[in-house]
Amino acid sequence: MVSALITGGTSGIGHAFAREFASRGVDLVLVARDTARLEAVAAELHTVHGVDVEIITADLSERADMERVAERIEDPKRPLDWVVNNAGFGLHSTVLDPDDVDTHAKALNVMCLAVLVLGGAAGRAMRGRGHGHIINVASSSASIFTGNYSAIKAWARTYSTSLAMELQGSGVKVTALLPGWVRTEFHGRAGINASKLPNIVWIDPDKLVRTCLADAERGRIESIPDWKWRAAMVVADHGPRAITRFVSAKLTASRKKH
């Protein structure tokens, strides 16, 4: 039986991954902080799709919890075919605000250190079996300069490619997911007002996940669902840096606290 572990699997993109995997008959291991929500999502997916759903309550800003999840990933008696490093949260602040230093440090733990620890665990376990898929959820923000969130996601993007290079030829495929604006509760939780954004910039989370899984199965190192975001990433990565800095400055200014 195929199985997948998803961090942050009870909301947003992570929940979309869980629903898609469950619809394909894939057994799940869901990792999140809220036990009650984990239990509710697990019960729903089991009832609707008949898959087995294991839950792990863990706060991935804490090193001990990271290590506990890593041990599950490397358990030889319960091998995993997919590991999705998705857990994260938005940062609606500048890098200059001293009141937010602890929040930025937590973000580094959840979206960098935990990805490093769990990605390494998955890579070792899957390499030993000669197959498996690892998906690291980064962001299109990795190509621009909107505070610490962009820096974190640029790290995740680079790390994911580095992991893919280390595992080349092992049978393990690693894909970085680089979404743009996705219709989830993510932005509301971060305090970002996205109500004025035009419909064209938005991506449906279910379409995003299906495209990402198809890209991962093809062995693509990066998945950028939707043509408009692929075009935007080409401009951000290869266009004049002055344009990228200009756009980044406008976005940063719009997020400053007043």
From TrEMBL:
Superkingdom: Bacteria
Alphabetical keyword list: Oxidoreductase
Pfam families per UniProt: adh_short
GO molecular function, one term: oxidoreductase activity
Oxidoreductase as UniProt keyword: yes
Gene Ontology CC terms, in alphabetical order: membrane
Record-linked InterPro entries: NAD(P)-bd_dom_sf, SDR_fam
Keyword Oxidoreductase: yes
Family, similarity comment: Belongs to the short-chain dehydrogenases/reductases (SDR) family.
Protein name (database record): SDR family NAD(P)-dependent oxidoreductase
